[in-house]
Amino acid sequence: MDVRIAKVRKEFDRFPALHDVSLDIHSGELIALLGPSGSGKTTLLRLIAGLEMPTDGRIFFGDIDASEKTVQERNIGFVFQHYALFRHMTILENVSFGLKVRPRSSRPPAGEIRRRAMELLDLVQLSGLEKRYPNQLSGGQRQRVALARALAIEPGVLLLDEPFGALDAQVRRELRKWLREIHDRTGHTTVFVTHDQEEALELADRLCVMSQGKIEQVGTPDAVYDTPSSPFVFGFIGESSELPVTIGSNELLLDGRSVGLPASSGTSGPARLFFRPHDVELTDDDAALAGEVTASRRVGGTRRVEIEIGNNGQKVEIDLPFDHPAGQRSRISFRPRRWRLFDVKPQA
Ligand code: ATP
């Protein structure tokens, strides 16, 4: 089901947690709400669920205005970070719960409920554990039960709030892959909250990057990673290095010297140059970025070095394809393969 969020504002005691947020969530997609702590991700999810009401704006489910509807009327599947399973119920009872408490008119017969719950336990690869209680499962298994329980009611929309946040890195990575597979098989419209950019890049069809109660950018993982729309998005999605440059008549300048990168036509003046540490090439060209290595550390399979550049002690980081001894100073010239320029806003 499509979900349309139209100019939604949410205030808590006059504190604006969301400012006029608009977002179209497409039927069947998995969209990640991504942003730092306090950016409004959970608030937006709770508004979609009906757990909070907007101060202003509307929320549509398909063509229906759901803004005034209750949680139950919205037919939402919800999974939270801290598995809210019923401790006194078996796994099978947990998964069946949402169907069992339906009004008699829409409740399937008991045999059908059991069959559906067993099918879902099979889908989440927990067949055989249906008679256990939640405290007899690992954290990762409990989150899989929570997902099966959310899917049992055949929700129009599935909402996941940091569902793997409390799990260790290895289990998290496994569940991420697994969730993507389940999504591809079941095709539910899914909204996934995370502050982990790697998780969002790997899992989602589209990312919605949020900051301070606003949407900064919405797009596919590739579009957001490769063409971030703002310095904030560049720095938040992936690693970044930044330098203050000047846009000259046809090239970029640092301290009045060409850095060997063309300037886009039509603009001039100060700008912020951003690039990814891994996306550079070494060069011996005179017109290039050059500086002294001041620090060096290992990052995964590469060596990341800090380079002091220009007259103002500005530092950037780049990855080297060879091992650079930590603590050794040497001069390096390089050029970003891809970069982005952002205007410097005039000070008010
Ligand atoms: P996190 O990643 O830490 O969960 P988030 O991006 O999900 O953060 P929200 O929980 O949506 O952020 O909070 C957004 C802002 O709204 C925060 O400044 C928070 O303090 C505030 N806020 C959220 N819920 C309430 C509430 N019930 N009462 C008052 N302020 C709230």
| Strand count | 20
**Percent range for helical residues?**
25-40%
User: What is the CATH superfamily of the largest domain?
Assistant: P-loop containing nucleotide triphosphate hydrolases
CATH class bucket of the largest domain: Alpha Beta
What is the residue-averaged pLDDT?
90
The structure class reads alpha+beta
CATH fold type of the largest domain: Rossmann fold
Q: Give a quick account of the main beta sheet: strands, pairing sense, barrel closure.
A: 6 strands, mixed
Give a verbal description of the structure.
It is a single chain. This protein has 348 residues and is α+β, with helices and mostly antiparallel strands. It has two domains: 3-236, 3-Layer(aba) Sandwich (Rossmann fold); 241-343, Nucleic acid-binding proteins (OB fold (Dihydrolipoamide Acetyltransferase, E2P), Beta Barrel), CATH 2.40.50.140. It is 25% helix and 36% strand. It has helices at 41-49, 71-74, 91-100, 110-123, 139-152, 169-186, 197-203, 221-226, 231-236; strands at 3-12, 15-25, 30-34, 56-61, 64-65, 76-79, 157-161, 189-194, 206-211, 214-219, 241-247, 251-254, 257-262, 269-275, 280-282, 289-299, 302-309, 314-320, 331-336, 340-343. The strands form four sheets. It has a six-stranded mixed sheet with strand order 6-7-8-3-9-10, sandwiched between helices. Helix 3 (91-100) packs across helix 4 and helix 4 (110-123) packs across helix 5. Bound molecules: adenosine-5'-triphosphate. Adenosine-5'-triphosphate binds at residues 12, 15, 17, 35, 37-43, 195.
